[in-house]
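Every protein is a chain of amino acids, and every chain bends into a shape of its own. The protein below has been through that process, and both of its lines are reproduced in full.
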Amino acid sequence: MAVTPIAQPSPAFQIRPATEADVHQIVDIGRSVFSVEFAHTMTPEDLVKYLDEFYTAPQILSDLSDPSYTIFVASTSGPDPRVAGFAYLRYGAHEPCVESYPKRVELWRLYVDSRLQSAGVGKLLMQRCFSSAIDQGFRTMWLGVYEENWRAQKFYFKHGFEKVGEHGFWTGDTVTTDWIVVKSLV
């Protein structure tokens, strides 16, 4: 899928909690980014099944009201603000290789509109997730990143994450390997 670049906006992005008004843009970005980054790793049927389970308006609306998640969006400035990316913090998730780390929270998703990657959106979302986690008393952040997603790995390592393990990531009948990475927040 070809990505059409859009003009780089001024560096002003607002990072804020997601609202119901953001749902359709979160769905669009989630479906697009997941498809671009991961479609090659699974069958078309598994891709459709995954997108239809996790990236629909009813699912994102449900996530917004679920206390297991905090969802942030980065929106552009100007008269017609648009969602440029989103991030999920997930509470209470378990991963065996991080169980020994104190007071942990998972950065479950951090997706940026492909046309705005390298514009600083991911960095701003990451900083907001760090500050939110610290404010809530968490001391460790962890996440899973696809073993062949070098760009994402570079981004996370640049922000202080270190690899501590691996796990299988299932999409239908397809399994890929995610690296588990952690960062101390103190």
Q: What stands out?
A: The mean pLDDT is 92. Helices lie at 23-38, 44-54, 57-65, 121-135, 150-158.
